[in-house]
Structure formats: structure tokens, C-alpha cells
Amino acid sequence: MTATFLSNCLRKPLSLVVLGLIILFFPSYSQSQGINVILDTDIDSDVDDVGALAMLHTLADHGRVEIMGVIVTSDDPFAPGCTSAINQYFGRPDIPIGVEPGIALNNHSRYTRQISQEFPAAISRYAEAEDAVQVYRRLLANAQDSSVVLISIGHLTNVARLLDSSPDSYSDLSGVELVAKKVKLWSCMGGHFPEGKEANFYRPDPASTVHSVQNWPGRVVFAGWEIGQEIITGGLFLKNYLPEDSPLWRAYELYNNFSGRQSWDQASILYAVSPEKAYWELEERGQVVVAEDGSNKWEPGDTSNQAYLKVNHAPEELAKIIDALMVGIYSDGF
């Protein structure tokens, strides 16, 4: 990666060279400090889910995270195969993948079918993925207490199913009890703050959003629509620095031919792995109320287990960090 990166730098505009060299010479991250992550993604309609998963693989390559599993909350039949192909490309074909079983399927994505068919994958059909709740419960039961970060970047059907789950062979705890014992942070891309209506909360299953938000027993930080809206990534930087045989390159080509895309999902990743960084302010006094239609409003009040991110950093600077992580360039200083 380093030799290829330096070779590419010699042919790129100076601004990109400076960005790359700044990031390249930071020290690597200690393996002992990795964060245990479960990603819950609706990897189908938008391409930022692919970028977010690529970020996690870069972070895993440098010991910053361990990707415990990926929950695919999608009705696209090729979504788990697409996820599997990305995981295999990055050298992690055995990451467990869970889906919601028994639902009606409909291919509506611009890229999932192509990625799942053009790249090697351990999973080729939706039915080959495990039940999401079983994956959740197994991974959490085997984890150390208060050691797991859940990052959700899609609608919350499977999060609600986890909370509703009953004791089983993996654990004698209920879903709520298991989450309370094992999960230290839920980084949720969802909502529009301080009030509004955002797709992950209202589509297609607002009842699961209401249930998840009301019953989550631990710390949750929401990255609302307004956070990622101004952070544009996945443009020419990605096109120029990735090989064309990368599923990330192919997904962004298929989605909008590298014309740039908002980074809603990537913002949740960046916060989850670097919560101590001042990229955003936290509004912690109050809690979110979600209506039956999935719209939300922040009600000011006492400090609770909930918070939401507020803009505190130039979106152009955040875009540089996210673009770099998506293409495999790592900095311990981000």
C-alpha cells in the first residue's frame, strides 16, 4: 500500500500529495487498543454504506477496530452478498453477516447485484446469511462486558429485534439485559436535529425506531442528517487513488460516477472510533422523542443516556479524513 501510494502521489495534484503525506507519516495504532465494533447497515440504496464499511476495514488493518460482525438490515437480495464481497476483498471473509429472515426481497440498489456477482464472496444468496438476532446475541454473549460499540447506519429493524429477543443458548439474558451488559456505546446515524424527519428513522419501519430509542438501556449518540450533509466524499480522490478492481471503486462508479456524495454514515464511524476528538460538539442535555411517523424532536432537559452531534469542524477537513480512510490511508492523529 505504501509503495503504491507514493507512486501515485508523484502523479497527483499537490493538494492531494500534501494530504497523503501528512497522513502517511503518522505512527500506527497499537493493536491492544482496538475497539470491538458491530456494524448494522442498510447497504443498498445509498453508497455511503460501502464507504463506511471500507473505513472500518482500514481501521481494522491498523488495529484500531475489530469488526465483530455486520448486520445487513435490507430487503435487497444482493445486500449480504455485496457485504460479503467487500469483506473478502479486504481479507476478512469470515466476518459473520446477519439478515432479517423471511422478508419479501426487492433489488432496488444501483450496485449490490454487480458487487456481489463481480467479486468473490463467501455468501452468494440472501438465504445463506444468518439470522441477524442470532448473530447479535452470539457476538454480544461472547464479548467482554462493556466492550462493544454498535454502529448503526440504516433503519433500526434488527436493533429492535435484538432488544425484543429472549434468552437462548447464547445467553440467559433478555435482549435489553444483554445490550446493557455488553454494549458501551451505540453510534446511530439517524434523525434530524434538533428536529425533523430523516430516512433511517422513518423508512421503512418507524415503529422499530420508536421502540429502539425508547428502550435502549445504554449510551447512544445520534449523528443526524445535518452532520453528514455537508461532508462530501467519494469523488475524484477516490477514483484516482483506488484500483479499478476494488469493490469500493466499482460501487461509487455505479452509484454516481464519482461525482461526490454526502457522508452521513461515515460520520457515525468517525465519531464512534474517535469520540474524544473535537470534530463535533455534543448536545447532552435532554433526549430525543420519535413520533409514530418517524419524525423526531430533541426535548431539552436533564442529562440522559442520549446525545446528538453538533457541527464544530469544517466539513472539508472531515471529508479529507474520511476520504483517506476509505482508500486505505491511515493516521493515528485523526
What does this structure look like?
40% of the residues lie in helices and 21% in strands. The chain contains 15 helices and 12 strands. The protein has helices spanning 2-9, 14-24, 48-61, 79-89, 112-118, 132-142, 157-164, 175-182, 199-202, 206-215, 225-228, 236-241, 247-256, 264-273, 315-326; strands at 35-41, 65-72, 97-99, 130-131, 148-153, 183-189, 195-196, 220-223, 232-233, 261-262, 280-290, 296-311. α3 runs parallel beside α14 and α6 (132-142) crosses α7 (157-164). It is globular. The relative contact order is 0.16.
Keyword list:
334 residues; two-stranded antiparallel ribbon; 15 helices
Number of domains: 1
Q: Largest sheet at a glance?
A: 10 strands, mixed
Order of helices and strands: HHEHEHEHEHEHHEEHHEHEHHEHEEH
Q: How would you sum up the global shape?
A: globular
Quick gist of this model?
This protein is of the alpha/beta class and about 325 residues long. The protein has helices at about 1-10, 15-25, 50-60, 80-90, 110-120, 130-140, 155-165, 175-180, 200, 205-215, 225-230, 235-240, 245-255, 265-275, 315-325, and strands at about 35-40, 65-70, 95-100, 130, 150-155, 185-190, 195, 220-225, 230-235, 260, 280-290, 295-310.
